[in-house]
Write a structure and sequence with these properties.
393 residues; alpha/beta; Nucleotidyltransferase, domain 5; eight-stranded mixed beta sheet; 14 strands; 37% helix; 22% strand; globular
Length: 393
């Protein structure tokens, strides 16, 4: 007999160097436990699992050379716990133009995802391998793919399509947008307490090591900063953000780089790391007083964010609300302040006495634009989609 009489949904969310996972009870729907494998690929990795009250259930300090080793250890730990799983949900960064909505994972879907690796070579291989590991560990449990591009699927053609010859669009070259599960959760969480959200013009700034923004008008995403990959848009921790196409040609010609070498530069050696040798915002803030490069990196990040906020406002013909989320957006009051400092022309005015707060509304009462901080929860969104699909079976 199973130790747990309740059934659970497992949510898996892999990043470039981490794997987050949560277990949700299905009825009532609530958190059972959550865990993270961090610093994957480094020499000092960590697995930490906590219950819903934050008490540590498991902690292991060891090296996790790859996402495969991390996923395998998580699967083994969960299997040893003998939890009765109803479904397993996975965040997938990309599913091509035809796969946007959450769907059951089948052999056919996996084959098609393998065919789209060229659209997300830095993410899809690890995500597909994680699916395979959990299929082997939990052979009879349905698994669901939740695509990060779903939130942006209804963008109009003038913001979705590239001005390139049509044969490339036929190969899947469009602006997909990412961080969609985060944006979806933000809209859900705001909608729970602010009914008029569905009628507003909202800019959501998901700021972390990877950063993007979305323009949401009347509940629909009309534009976003990332395009065919998570490399475009804002300057990020190790990613370049938008570049003149000739910059890429310059790098290829003058540096005689291979495609793989070029991808490594744009995705892992650029952004804040290229400017200051440091990609973490908190480390940069600590260093900026005595480090000119660190100060410059922060200036570039805030400038990039400020510029894209204005662009997203232009895409909607105005803005009613700015929402900060993501690791930086939620937790760094000083970065929020520096980003908003010169946005008075858009009607944005941070409340000075609220600038150190990390939650809820932080705009001045005279501000024409409401400014919020909202914690995101992609794992909740994955679990919710998975449960909804399981209940339809």
């Amino acid at each position: 007999m199973k130790k747990e009489q309740n059934t659970y949904i497992l949510s898996l969310n892999g990043g470039s160097s981490s794997l987050k996972f949560t277990l949700y009870r299905t009825d009532p729907f609530k958190l059972k436990l959550s865990g993270t494998v961090s610093r994957i690929g480094g020499k000092q990795g960590e697995l930490e699992i906590k219950d819903r009250d934050g008490h540590v259930l498991e902690k292991r300090d060891k090296e996790y050379p790859s996402m495969e080793t991390a996923a395998t250890e998580v699967a083994e730990w969960l299997k040893a716990g003998d939890y009765l799983l109803k479904g397993i949900g996975h965040r997938l960064v990309q599913g091509g133009p035809e796969h946007r909505q959450p769907e059951l994972i089948t052999a056919q879907l996996l084959a098609e995802l393998n065919g789209f690796i060229y659209l997300a070579p830095n993410h899809l291989p690890d995500e597909i391998r994680t699916i395979e590991i959990f299929q082997q560990a939990f052979t009879n449990i349905p698994q669901v793919a939740c695509f990060d591009t779903s939130f942006h699927k209804d963008m109009p053609s003038h913001s979705k399509d590239y001005p390139l010859p049509p044969q490339y669009k036929a190969k899947g070259l469009i602006r997909y947008g990412f961080h969609g599960l985060s944006y979806e959760y933000i809209m859900h969480a705001l909608g729970e307490r602010i009914p008029r959200i569905a009628r507003e013009k909202i800019i959501i700034a998901h700021l972390g090591n990877g950063a993007s923004m979305a323009a949401v008008k009347n509940g629909t995403c009309v534009d976003t900063t990332m395009g065919v990959s998570p490399t475009g848009g804002l300057v990020m921790g190790t990613r370049s953000g938008d570049l003149d196409p000739e910059v890429v040609l310059f790098l290829m010609k003058q540096g005689t780089l291979s495609v793989e070498e070029l991808d490594d530069i744009l995705s892992k050696q650029s952004g804040l790391k290229a400017i200051a040798g440091i990609s973490d915002i908190q480390e940069l803030l600590k260093a900026e007083k005595n480090n000119a490069q660190a100060k410059e990196a922060i200036t570039v990040f805030c400038y990039s964010a400020r510029k894209f906020i204005a662009a997203m406002a232009a895409a909607m013909g105005g803005v009613d609300r700015l929402v900060f989320t993501g690791g930086i957006g939620e937790n760094s009051a000083v970065i929020r302040q520096r980003i908003c400092k010169d946005l008075g022309f858009l009607g944005m005015d941070l409340h000075e006495k609220k600038k150190e707060e990390s939650r809820d509304e932080i705009s001045h009462k005279k501000s024409r634009v409401i400014i919020n901080v909202q914690q995101t929860n992609e794992e909740w969104m994955i679990a919710k989609h998975t449960l909804q699909l399981m209940n339809k079976k």
